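Step 1: inspect the first sequence and its tokens.
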Amino acid sequence: MSRAPAALTQVLALFAVALLGAAGCATLPSSTPPQVVDTFAPSEAAPTVPTPIPDQEPDLLVRDFLKAAAIADQRHAAARQFLTTDAAETWDASAETTIVLRADLSAEGGRGADRAEYTLRAEKVGTLDPGGIFREEGGQLEETIELTRQDGQWRIDSLPPGVVIERAEFFSTYAPRDLFFLAGGGAGDELVPDPRWTAADRTDLGYSLVNLLATGPRPALTDAVSSRVPASVSVRPNTGEDGDERPGITIDFTGLPVLSSQATTEFAAQVVWTLARSDVAGPYRLERDGAPLDERFRDGWTTEDVRAFDPYPSVEPMRHALTAADGLVSLEDGGARPAGGEWSEVRGGHAAVMSHSGRQLAVVTGEEGQGERRLLVGPIDGAPDEVASGAAMAGPTFHPVDGAVWAMVDNSRLLRIATRGEDPSVEELDAGPILALGSRVSALRIDQSGSQLAVIVDGKVFVGSLSAETGAPQPGSFRQIGRALGESASVVAWRDRSTLVVGRDTTDAPVASISVDGANTVPLSQRNIAGPVTAVAAAGREVYVVDQRSLLRLDTGAETNDRYWREINGLAAIRADPVVAG
């Protein structure tokens, strides 16, 4: 397996610094500005941006232009001030927005008394599609920018279509927000986050987010989720009566059809959680053409009214582990003790995972590359059954809705094992969408909503969607994330519905966190951990890994100075694998 670049540690450190500076924003973004967002009600206050300075040198003017280009208000009006009159009228800023690591300028075209030409070179880190959809992307960018004097001042008179924004400027002007859609496949009250990037200081954020909900999910999620917010709906700021000082926000929907009671609740869940998670204060007074959407909530909805849809519910920490000597053990305040039953007789187990109901267990036995590996499945208080075997085994992972176990056998066969009958039944799914990504599949994990699948192929991390109709992986939906990790990823787990944790086959930054859209790649604590990492799991604020020595846990909610990896009480110096839902 190839390794990540030697400079990876420094790169990841830069990511962490950028995140701190951006109050949690992403590390890498680019492509067209969120035009859909900009068609909503205009912001009432524009951020402070550079303006042309009299007698400014041409290279400095170009740099200020790049800073101003990060402000998309009014068709990038701030940036157009740096262009000649003709160029300002013809520049197509909507063609593409590219976020780059750093823009380097060189006057290769020369500079005269009234003409100057600069070559802009930069490393691309992503694209921002219409609707604020970030797509991680690598490669080099090279563009030519020409300037001339207009009324004695340097102005840009020729530049390519689209917008180029340096990462630092992107972080200071954009912020990530989650839109929420309903999980498909009979998931009921499960919500799926769809991260979008919008202007960080929008004063009309609530209205713009709800309008954006009406445009639907990103293409990769189209066949995996559904929405009660139809494309026909639009919203407008509620002017209300003068002197109305009620807390919260009133959103008046037009074009909204009559909904059943259940559909109304699902509609409200999407809207309320989208607004609440973006720090738009409630209560949320939802109206249809000026009248309350539901008379029971005339004074507004709160998150408690749709608590069943909470996309980030609280999760208990790990209660079981799988040890080499004692099989399954229970973790208690006093330490670890054998769980009893036939699972405590299992030896050589790895990759243990528990169903989301807490009633089923799946374990892979045998060492990779050392003979046959077996997949065992069964009730956690009962007897395991062998359901598959092969020389290589990726997984297992439980589907949260139907309780089926998934595994990839011999890098070729994707199996779905039903566990709800008396005997497990094995079905082979189309593995094509995963096999198209590469040759060696080392890990796969279904998210908590049952709508998305994370896989590691040839040391790279990919996320794709699962069909709401068939539950199978969707062709064309998989995209690589965490490119800064190179080809060093070995294991993966969902920390929550919008974040993954990746264990790496390296001693430098052996554990990293990646946002589901690929925008954030951040190393977790490197204190008291010795990579490579062979297992990773997450439960709430805690992350669990197996490093060279033992099973460790990290409390990600602890104060920064206290974030170090600690051994599990009762399992110190004992080889064990974590057992959590996933």
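Step 2: inspect the second sequence and its tokens, then contrast the two.
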Amino acid sequence: MTNAEKKELARLRHIVHMKGQLECLRDIIDRGLDIYGDRICMVEKNKDQILQHTLPELHEKVYALGTALVNMGLKGKHIAIVGENSFNWVVAFLAVSCGVGIAVPIDKELKDEEISALISKGDADAMFCSKTYYKMAKYHLENNPEFKAVVSMNKKYDDEKFYTIDGLIEKGKQLIKDGDRSYLDARPDADDVAAIVFTSGTTGANKGVMLSHRNFCTNVDGIIDTIPTEHSSFDLLPMNHVFELSCNIFTALYMNAVIYVNDSLKNILQNIQLFKPDAMNAVPLVLEGIYNGIWAAAEQKGAAKALKKLVEISNKLRKKGIDLRPVLFATIRKNFGDKFPTLVCGGAPSRAEYVTGLGDLGFRVYNGYGLTESSPTVTLNLEADKDPTSAGFAFPKSKFIIHEPDENGIGEIWIKGDNVTKGYYKDDAANAESFEDGWFKTGDYGRVTEKGELFVSGRKKTLIILGNGKNIFPEDIEFHVMDNVSYIREAVAFEAEKEILGRKDTVIAVYVYVEPSDFPGMSEDEIINKVKTDIADTNRTQPSYKKVQDVAVSFKEFEKTSTRKVVRKIVIDKYNAEKALIK
């Protein structure tokens, strides 16, 4: 993009911004069409083809598809969406939420039976799906007589209850041409529910979070007011995840930052080099992969010592106000499309060494704190490389307090604001437990400084409560173990029972994943003994109540959600099952 093009885009963005706050998601596509005109909004790959989609195309397809869905009798209904990230996924979501009913995006990484169960739990009457989920969709259709239709997003099937998104769009265009305004005039209210988004369920059952147009729009407006908008973004995380959908897709569409869709995890680096995006949303494991990948490549080329020396020189210069990172690390920059994309990290706590390390190399890293229930942003740290332990300061129109802090200032984080959900779908028990006096109880613990800066300690549900009354956050143990035993790739800490001196006591256990290839010539038993010995050595730097007293070793990566968060419940269940077998 030339300087003249950047200047023109800045002018158009200013006009959009002066329109005032968003009221509903329809404003994003309406204002975009009015002001940006026929500019490109999304780019994706289809095998060897590069497909460019414009704002007029998005607007026309959303309105046509919405009209066809209303004509099918789906007005006011819940409609599920499951499939790979794509332009059609976005069209389907916006068409449903902007005048038909409520969108129910589903995690595509779940098993077929889990997807089917969430479709039922969300009371969906129809679904959009990609060809990958044809068998699941057919099974659900056959076993739920009240289910009305399946819309294929990328393939035609010889089945009368299987429609195609392209066919419905063409039908909708004709209906509009013939004077049908049932969808065009159906503008949602700000407090209408736009979507039911299910939580990842890493520690328990999935809960359906009802997010309104006001919730999403507050988040988009807040990001625009807080973070400098880049000219393009890389769509990597699943679109069903609120972090990606709200912070990337909706925000980029509204600011006309071209969205480049990644077609496969194995093609990430290749696609970054192809598209040259300015920014991308990431989760901690993505940061870890980028950081470790850079240093592994340096090791392979015999350049690790030289790179380390350059980092030291660069950091000394930066302290004097001289920033030569774009020059000193030009070779690394070239591998990322000849630029260091801004990395916006969320979803889980990040290890400090990766955030600081990427900042040292020239990446700009933002992190913060948020939940599905807050659409998702609560706080933002725009200088994460300087203090990666900080979750930052309160997001616009978002408030938080530390409820009943202990002597160390740590208590449960309670939040409120226009970005916070109105509640869980058909879950009175969860709503009664989660809301009090207008505040949403996050279930996370943290502390706040006098300046209002938030530091998150850990989850209430995963808190380790020892027999001596000490409370331990598992994240503290996990980061300590991984920071001190470099070959440990993943760690999950939790409370367990162990017989000590003839009686059972509650202790800290840790289950770690190591890769056998990191231990050439060693048997599995030898690796396990080494792991246990090395973790025992780390106990020497810990207070007695934080010492790990039981270790389990896995030679396989832990099961994760689609946003690469370890499913703690599965890990702990596996530990308990193995202990039961030993007994």
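Step 3: confirm your contrast with the notes below.
The CA atoms of residues 399 and 571 lie 34 Å apart. The longest helix spans residues 55-71.
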